[in-house]
Amino acid sequence: MERNKYREQIQNSIVEPSEDSWEKLSKKLTDHDKKNNKRLFMKYAISIFIITSLGFYLFQPDNEIPRDEIIVSPKVDKTSIKSSLANFEADTTLSAPTENSNVIKIKGTKLLANEIINYDVGERMAPENEDNKEQNKNSLREVHDYFTTNTLNETSKIELHNEDTYEEVEALLKSAYLNIEQNDQYLNEKTISAIDLLGEIEDGIEKDTRRKLFEKIIITIKNPTEIEITDRSK
Amino acid sequence: MRKVIKLNNDTQLIKQSLKNNRKAQKLLYQKYAPKMLRLCTYYIKDLQQSEEVMLNGFFKVFTKLSQYANKGSFEGWIRKIMVWESISYLRKKKELIFTHKIEVYGKFIENEVELNIAVEDLHQYINQLSNGCKVVFNLYVIEGYKHAEIAEILQISEGTSKTQLFRARKALQKIISRNQKKYHGTK
Q1: pLDDT over 70 (residue B106)
Q2: Above 50 in pLDDT, residue B125?
Q3: A87 contacts A182 by C-beta, under 8 angstroms
Q4: Quick check: A29 and B59 CB within 8 A?
Q5: Which residues in A lie closer than 8 A to residue B142 (C-beta atoms)?
Q6: How confident is the model at residue B176 (pLDDT cuts 50, 70, 90)?
Q7: DSSP symbol at A103
Q8: Residue, of B29 and A64, whose pLDDT is higher
Q9: How close A18 comes to chain B (CA, Å)?
Q10: Rounded CA gap, A145 and A81, in Å?
Q11: Chain A residues with CB inside 8 Å of B79's CB?
Q12: Do A28 and B141 touch (CB under 8 A)?
């Protein structure tokens, strides 16, 4: 008992600290607070940056994925094709017949104008069934007449000889150009851009990989797998 | 409008100190600093150094105040920190050396005189002891730790702690009797 009293006496004994001791401590505490605030600010800034960049990476909208420009095919004016086709037919196949002969000479090959017309028209307007046969025949005739008249008009304009002339070459080039143009238009109308298709496939793969990665992370967080360390030297 | 907070008791002061209220911290400091400075002087002879150690201790008290879980007395918690701080200071200065020489010590007969010494005088006598003996004596007699606890704090064996305490007591007895002879003549 007496010992405890003595202990209390010792513990309660005091020595007054110097007057400026609190100021020293206060200054130290203020410096510490400032440092702490800076650290806290840095922590917040870093975490916000990490979250934003992660979010940007993981949830990037599809339309923001950079890829090749999508090429939109221009609308095809069917009437212009028809007219250019007519011109083309007139310029090429039907430009040769003359009063003397109905034979044209295209790059050294001799073909009858009628044969060409029949061939072309027959290719394009083949009858689908018996009911339409008559109708198709009529339309074939119409086309045939149209080409014939056009041919006569064109041939009257050009002085044709049985040899290649400048005008003939011009006409051939023009027809070739038109032909290419038609083919391009037709292809644009009927085909799909390979670049777009490739882009779509890449997007699909990227989405799938991202989803799988995300699922894997979630599974790992939920069930942390035990890592077994094996001794390779054995 | 200003909010008036009454800072009467430790709980209120601690609450406000946790919010970095300097006024509350100052009040806590003013309340406990004199006692803690005395505690430090039991371990460190130099008063200036003791004050430095005490300020470091209070800095830790205020920065780690959230760790005080209102279990036990607040004063006891501060005392623990101060003791740790003093011991760390002695360790840093490499002034805390324990000799592991095994001594066969007999039963210590407590002297009545030992308990009747004035606190101030005892403080002086303790400061004459070697650091090892002084620390063990302070921890055992003043702070009330057991040998096992002292051994854990100082990272020594329980035997060493007991030896140090025995030496300290013996030395103190010598000092006290020498001083009694000096002031009261021979018995």
Answers
A1: no
A2: yes
A3: no
A4: yes
A5: 7, 10-11
A6: confident
A7: E
A8: B29
A9: 8
A10: 19
A11: 11
A12: no
Which ranges of chain A have pLDDT less than 50? 93-127
List of chain A residues whose C-beta atoms are within 8 Å of the C-beta of residue B30: 22
Angle between helices A21-58 and B47-63 (to 10 degrees): 30
A20 Cβ under 8 Å from any chain B Cβ: no
Test the B interface: residue of A2, A12, A15, A35 with most B CBs within 10 Å: A15
Q: Which chain B residues touch A18 with a CB distance below 8 Å?
A: 51
Distance CA A190, CA A177 (A): 20
Query: Over the Cα atoms of chain B, what is R_g?
Result: 19
For the beta carbon of residue A186, count every other beta carbon within 10 angstroms: 12
pLDDT of residue A218: 84
- Which chain B residue has the Cα nearest residue A32? B63
The answer on pLDDT for B80 being more than 90 is yes
Which residue is closest to B40 within chain A, CA to CA?
Answer: A15
Tell me if B159 sits within 8 A of B136, measured CB to CB. Answer: no
The backbone region for A71, taken as left when phi is positive above 0, alpha when psi lies in -120 to 50, beta otherwise, is: beta
Contact B119, A10 (CB under 8 A): yes
- Is the pLDDT at B20 greater than 80, yes or no? yes
Residue A112: strand pairing partners: A103
Q: How far is CA A105 from the centre of its chain?
A: 46
Q: Which two tokens stand for residue B7?
A: 């800072």
Mean pLDDT of chain B: 85
| Pair A91, A154: CB distance under 8 Å | yes
